[in-house]
Amino acid sequence: MLVVDCEMTGLEPTLHSILSVGAVDLDNPSRQLYEECRAWDGAKIEDEALAVCGFTREQATDPSKQSEAELVQKFIAFGVGMQDHTIAGQNVFTDTYFLQAAARRAGHTAWPFAHRIIDIHSLAYEHMIKRGMTPPIDPDKHHTALGLKAIAVYCGMPEEPEPHNALTGAKYNAEVISRLLYDKKLLPEFEQYAIPWL
């Protein structure tokens, strides 16, 4: 399983750019990827998005950084080297759409990954239901309040630190998936945190 997290300049894959990608090979968790890039020329850069990921506008447009095209080529090479490259993560459809859009902008003719994904929100929702729990509902938005912070806490881990970092996010995603699917700890940085339902 290819566990992914991206940081971007906004939320629309055709208007905004990837700034960084983190990935963890769930079957071989010591195999990890972290890459940063500059925003593609003409990409919109939202101040709110920069605040989330901690990049400055200067860092987001730094000409000495690799291009988004180079970043996505490295991501693809990392993923296709795995036995199971099903993409997984929290709200991972967004990350997947951004990576696909980056591949199209880079002129790649084939996206080598399937459209099937594994989303942590769904895993956590099902896990809670099977334990007889009611997943929390956001009272204002009237949908589940199972963001990565809440899911990490549910799994016995501390909240993900801010600002967000793509590799930190990918590691949190991988640890959560391991705990929810296999009742197992995965990464040494989370070893000290017990799995609450065991």
Description:
- By secondary structure, the chain is an alpha/beta fold.
- It has one domain (2-190): Nucleotidyltransferase, domain 5, CATH 3.30.420.
- It has helices at residues 47-53, 57-60, 68-80, 92-105, 120-130, 148-154, 166-182; strands at residues 2-8, 18-25, 32-36, 87-89, 117-119.
- The chain has a five-stranded mixed sheet with strand order 3-2-1-4-5, sandwiched between helices.
- It is globular.
- The model has no long low-confidence stretch (mean pLDDT 96).
Overview features:
198 residues, alpha/beta, Nucleotidyltransferase, domain 5, five-stranded mixed beta sheet, 7 helices, 5 strands
Q: Please compute the radius of gyration using only Cα atoms.
A: 17 Å
Main sheet overview:
5 strands, mixed
CATH class annotation: Alpha Beta
Mean residue pLDDT: 96
CATH superfamily: Ribonuclease H-like superfamily/Ribonuclease H
Percentage of residues assigned to helices: 25-40%
Summarize, please.
The protein has 198 residues and is α/β, with parallel strands linked by helices.
